[in-house]
Amino acid sequence: MAEETHNSLDGRADVVVQAGRIEALHLHGAVASDRPVPFQLPPALAHFVNRQAEQERIARAAESHAGDGSPLVVALSGIGGIGKTALGFHVARRLSRRYPDGVLYVDLDDLRRDGVVEVADAVAELSTGLGVTAEWLERSFAGRKKQYWTLTRDKRLIVIIDNARYGTEAVPLLPASSGSLVIVTSQGALYDLDGTAPVEVPVNPLALEDAARLLAHIVDDHRLPAEPDATAALVRGCGGLPAALKVAGQWVRKYRRRSLSRLVEELTAELREKGIPMVEAVWDAAYAGLGQEAARLYRLLSLHPAPVVTAPAAAALLGAGEQRAVDALEELESAGLLENRPEGCRMHDLLSGHADRRAREADPEGAERDVARRALIRWYRRQAARADLTAAGPRMTLAELPEAVAGVPDAEFSTKPEALRWLESRRLALYGCVRLAFDSGLYEDAWALCEPLWTHFLDHPHYADVTDAFATGVAAADRLEHLPAMVRTRCQLARPLWEQQRYDEAAEHLSRALKAAEALGESDEERRLRASAVEFSGLLKFAKGDLAGAAADFETSRRIHTAIGNAYGVLLQTYLLGRTALRQGQVGRAVGSLEEAHRMAREQQRERMTARTGFELGRALRCAGRAAEAEGLARAALESARERGSAVDEARVLEELAGLADERGAAAEAAGHRAAARALADRAGGLTGS
Question: Which residue range(s) make up the domain with 234?
Answer without folding.
Answer: 208-288
